[in-house]
Amino acid sequence: MIKKLVVGLAAVAIVVLVAAWAAAPVLSAQALIRAAKAGDADRIEQLVDFPALRQSLKDELNAELAAQMRRDPRMAESGLGGLGLILAPMLLSGAVDAAVTPEVVAQMVTTAEAPDPTVRDQPEPGDAADEGDDIHQAWGYRDLNAFAVTLTDRDHPDQRLALILERRGLFSWKLAAVDIQNDARP
Question: Where are the domains of the chain?
Answer without folding.
Answer: 2-182
